[in-house]
Structures are given as structure tokens and as C-alpha cells.
Write a structure and sequence with these properties.
- This protein is α+β, with helices and mostly antiparallel strands and 101 residues long.
- It is 19% helix and 16% strand.
- It contains two helices and four strands; from the N terminus they run E-H-E-E-E-H.
- The strands form two sheets. It has a two-stranded antiparallel ribbon with strand order 1-4.
- It is globular, with a radius of gyration of 12 Å.
- The termini are far apart.
């Protein structure tokens, strides 16, 4: 099962997960007007390299834990694929608290 980025990332997006993904299947974008990232479920190899990189613990292993955001990841991944990676936000950068970016 592919990993999923959940609502905890919404407005936060540190982007370090994108840098460590060996198959580059994590894409940046905006959702509901806030910075966000998604994992492409068709390309994810379930390695888990992204999980320890996320300071907001927004990445989950099982899509069944959050089917709503699993569907959002699957829907947005093809639309966001190929976008340039954003700069990594320093960790521990202060949480943005899901504010508008």
C-alpha cells in the first residue's frame, strides 16, 4: 500500500520528504489555497524514507487510516507531477499552524 500525506501537512510543507524519496513520487502544490504535498500512489514503493523526515507526522503508511486524504493524494498526484521541488524548510522550523501561506 502506498504512503499518504494527510491534512497535517496542509499549510506546513517542510519539503524534506521530497528530497529523500528514492523514486521522486512526492509532489508539491497547493490545496485549498495552502501549501501541500502529495504522494503518487502509482509510483510509491512503500520504502518509508519519507516518514522520519516529516516533522508534522503528516505521512501515514496505510491509506485506510485516512481514505479522504488518500483519495486527494491520488487525484492531485497526476496534476502536480513534474513540478520543481521547493526549497526545504529548516527543521525545526516553526509550525505555520495551517495558516495561509
Amino acid at each position: 500500500m502506498p504512503f499518504v500525506i494527510t491534512e497535517k501537512c496542509l499549510g506546513e510543507r517542510y519539503a524534506s520528504c521530497m528530497q529523500v524519496c528514492p523514486v521522486y513520487c512526492i509532489y508539491p502544490g497547493e490545496y485549498e489555497g495552502k501549501l501541500f504535498a502529495v504522494i503518487d500512489p502509482k509510483l510509491c514503493i512503500n520504502c518509508g524514507a519519507c516518514v522520519p523526515e516529516c516533522p508534522t507526522e503528516a505521512i501515514i503508511e496505510n491509506p485506510k487510516e485516512d481514505p479522504v486524504f488518500a483519495a486527494i493524494n491520488a487525484k492531485l498526484a497526476p496534476l502536480w507531477k513534474g513540478r520543481p521541488l521547493p526549497p526545504v524548510r529548516p527543521i525545526p522550523g516553526p509550525p505555520r499552524g495551517n495558516r495561509e501561506s
